[in-house]
Give the backbone structure.
Amino acid sequence: MERLRTLLKKIDGRGYKAYKELKGSYQFHGYRLTLDHVQGDPFARPSRISIHVPSSVAPLSPEFCSGRIRKTAAEDFLARGVARAIQAHVKGQRGIGKSGEIRIETSGQQILVRNSVLIDSEGIEARLTVGLPAAGQTIMARDAEEMFFRELPEVVAHGLYFENLDKGSFQRHVESAEDQHYLRGLLLPNNLAAFVADNSLLPRQSGIDDRPLQGKKVVPFVAPDSLACTLVLPNRGKVRGMGIPRGVTLIVGGGFHGKSTLLHALERGVYNHIPGDGRELVATDPTAVKVRAEDNRVVSNINISPFIDRLPFARNTTNFSTENASGSTSQAANIIEALEDEAALLLIDEDTSATNFMIRDERMQRLVVREKEPITPFLFRVKEMYHDLVVSTILVMGGSGDYFAVSDTVIMMDSYRPEDVTLNAHGLVDREQVQEKLSDLPPIVRKAERRPDAGRLNPVRGKKEVSIETRGIDTLLYGRHEIDLSKVEQLIDIGQTRAIGLIIHYYAINYADKAGNITEGLKLALKDVEEQGLDILSPWKTGTLALPRLHEVAAAINRMRAAG
Ligand code: ADP
Ligand code: MG
């Protein structure tokens, strides 16, 4: 600690590069501070530091971090505490560029596996970034000293010392996460695709603000009796809620009655949420995939023939590629890819679907005979997908009654309240009718045959052998590829985008040539990451990664252009 103080005195007023001398470890009262990487100038990416608090100094109660789920929740809780402590104790701007800022990466409303705070038997490690202060290119060592000797000790004490933490909130955080994980595990044994507990608060502040909508007008969720079930969670005990059975479920209702809001909550139900979010007890099959139309997306070597065949000029669709898919083609590819990734539940909203992919009504079927229509609407396959492949669908469809005949459950949203209208809907249709049309359709193949060729996964760009960057959460720059992830709706954190790039590289090196197909290879790569931690992905120490699901990693590879 004194050595750092002396070094700072020595480099005060010198050129920025002299900060490099600080690299190394320093023992503070109660923790060790390490400068892992020192930035080259005040506008560059800020310096990376790590803080080790040994368990001998600030032991965590074991019940707060035993087991994978509790540990992840505890790490999440600590990272948020550090972020709050930074808000409270760090002055911020102290010169040009990033001078003075101290940051830690945390999640939004969800609890994700990250590497900004890690707990192990030896203690807690937190990874932060620090903008080393400068005026022009001149080191402002006195400001740096304040950051290291006044601000950071406060951040560590308030964010990481167990004795200073709010034990009640901490306990709620880990117990809630554990319940959510457990609830997700109860779905399959109860033959459910999803569950929404009574009193859940689904609406959000806005499309870009994932925090709960506040105020008296928010209508809490209440399950209709006929779909209600009661499940028992380890911490919270009994919860009543709406069980959405596996099979084909329709969500109907007038415009603005809360259909899409319910579906969005289900999309996020694959993740655990922080207490107070309102969606803590909304659980969805962990493999659920939101499927939508995605005009202009890249498609590479996908068998979309189950939905699209007999194109004009006999263009083959069993191994289909395009640089800019249409609405229906992209939605077909998205479904086939979801099946490859072993999705057991598809989530679809009419708002983001291609109409000609979803339905074709009686009159149109009579006018345009089947031989002249390449598209087989989802309508004709959704039932088969459940019966033959055990893939359930939850579909928001307010504009057409065609799906009544193929649905198992129909839920109507009425002023944000769900009602079970299955019997009414089935009373309106002849349920045998649609079945007959299935006979001569190309088979749906679940397994990916392909393995992306290693050349395509080479992250080389110009002189850099490995160039993997992100531009916001939605764009992954992998080698010479620019991958658009803006329509991959269950990708929720830029840390996941960063990790996806690194996982693709890891997969390319370790498994691309060995594994049977792309799905198998990615599963092996993700297994390594889950078992050994996100750190195996990066050659240097970072705290900026968050774990994505298999589906989101595959989605990125699937959106790479064939030629780099
Ligand atoms: P739909 O898809 O049926 O047209 P939306 O789900 O888009 O309807 O919801 C319409 C509006 O109602 C949105 O602004 C949403 O925030 C709001 N909303 C949804 N659910 C609730 C609720 N439970 N309480 C209050 N407002 C809600
Ligand atoms: Mg809607």
